[in-house]
Amino acid sequence: MDQMAERQHKKRKPEKMAGARTSGHDKEEEKKVKAPSVYLVVGHEVSWATYSVFKVDPYAAAKRGGGGGDEEDPAPVPIPRRLARISAKFCMSFAPVPVRSWIVGVGGDSADEDYAPETIVFDTETRAVIRGPNLLSTKLHPVVLTIGHKIYALARYPSVTGQLDFVPWFEVLDLSQARVVDGHLESCEWKPLPRPPFFPWDLTPLQYLSPPMVTVESYVALASCILVSLSQQEGTHMFDVEKEQWSKLDDNSLPFVRGAVPHGPIFLGLSRAKKTITAYNITVVCQPRSGGTAPSLSIVEFPVVSDREEEILSTPIFLSLGSPGFCSLKSWSDHPTTDDPCTRARIKLMAYHTEEPISQECIESSHGLLIPNQWKQVYEICDSSRELIWQCLITAMSL
């Protein structure tokens, strides 16, 4: 692979740092457990799709003086009061828009076109639910990425037949001039972007009868580009958001699955090979080639290393908390059998402090991204009026 360097370090248990805390009693450490607000989107299984939004403190256990990572799971506590209940479509994806303090839901199925729009906004400051413009095509669980004021929606399961994830497969919503008028977004609309060349399109009549199946498996948004890899094809593709052009960037796929999230100057992703949360230094640089220059991909991989016996909770739902650290979450049903209505569930949140400062040099010298402190919290959700979906936690994000 051109300029691709995947550095695999043997995981070792580092020496425990002097003053490392296990129970949250150290007041000096407690000053560091400040983090952005974490919002949870929970899904309900009812006749029309409903999502609940909750706000939690990822370091609540540390501030109470407990929840050390090497302890048994603490007794569950009731989740904080719901901020909003949103009626929208099934199969939506959610993404934060930090410049507006918004959580935006995009996509959904097309079973009923009337009961909700395909774009919905929750304003975390005013707690208002705002209707947004419809997408140009249906997208089930689309890949949704935010760069500044723009939201990019890419079909996760592109199709050339029927109405599921049909063209246009790639769209953008510019919120820079958006205004809220009577509970609706105005002065913004979805616009089509160039078709991803790696999606099936130029098919023969025989291929059209049984078109190839394609799924977007890995993706990450950098400052001026979006990188994408597919599960059925090798390689990494790049979309230049300024030129609005697609290009093949590398012959190898991204080394993580799903999305990678920025954490300071690096990224955190769920390793494709190890199935663990891993740190990545990802850069796209222009290399001289015959007749000009061409972009080239460089990825350096580092393990995330804890000084506790307990492994890092590696799940598809994790997020950066800024310079203090990151957290990962999972949910499960709290009822005895799958035949019973799911009205009670639990969400486990693991919060981790990462050693500062975060830089490639520090990570290299420490043989990985070090975690000297970690805490856990278990929340209980009970909703007897609206059944929860089996794994109720749809996503989590920080603002």
Notes on the structure:
InterPro entries: DUF1668_ORYSA, Kelch-typ_b-propeller. This is DUF1618 domain-containing protein. Residues 1-34 are annotated as: Disordered. It holds the Pfam family DUF1668. By secondary structure, this protein is mainly beta. The chain has one domain: Kelch-type beta propeller (Neuraminidase, 6 Propeller), CATH 2.120.10. It is built from 4 helices and 28 strands. The longest helix has 6 residues, at 360-365. The radius of gyration is 22 Å and the shape is globular.
Q: Secondary-structure blueprint of this entry?
A:
Elements: H1 27-30, E1 38-44, E2 50-56, H2 60-64, E3 77-78, E4 84-87, E5 92-97, E6 102-107, E7 119-123, E8 129-131, E9 143-147, E10 150-154, E11 170-174, E12 179-181, E13 184-186, E14 190-192, H3 205-209, E15 216-221, E16 225-230, E17 236-240, E18 245-250, E19 256-263, E20 266-271, E21 277-289, E22 292-306, E23 317-320, E24 325-333, E25 344-353, H4 360-365, E26 369-371, E27 373-382, E28 388-398
Parallel strand pairs: 3-27, 15-19, 22-26
Antiparallel strand pairs: 1-2, 1-28, 2-4, 5-6, 6-7, 7-8, 9-10, 10-11, 11-14, 12-13, 15-16, 16-17, 17-18, 19-20, 20-21, 21-22, 23-24, 24-25, 25-27
